[in-house]
Amino acid sequence: MKVHQIYPKKVRVEGCGQEAIYVDACDGYGVEAQCGWGRQYATQFERDAAERAKTERAEAKKQAAEDKKNERARAEQEASEREAAEKDRAEQEKLAKAEQAAAEKDEAKAEEPKAKPEASADEPEAKSEPAADEPEADKPDAKSAKRGKRAKQDDGIDAFLK
Fold it and tell me: Rounded to whole angstroms, how far apart are CA atoms 148 and 154?
């Protein structure tokens, strides 16, 4: 920048391919006077153009601040949506694990009865044989009959092994 003094309170400033004249002036007298350096315009058109440019810069600055605010709000919203999605995914995984565990438990239960039906088939018959109408003397005979079957099976296994 180059500054050329025209008068004691008037300077011409050159820089970046532009040129402007600034004046140290007051807009009144006495205590109420507002004094300071301001731009001196050659025409009213030049003054209006400068005011429009100043207004546009202020609006651009305001718009940039608003855009930045909206960007932050959008980023926060995306972060909360990601957090909610992660939470949902974790809950779904937890439910899937619980369902898998339940399915494995059901499979284990389904396999248990398959092995036990043979043993449990004998028990209902034994329970259904002694009736309330039968005398108590018959009950020991039924038990001894069962023991006899087992004894025969044991004898068969012992004979087979010998």
Answer: 10
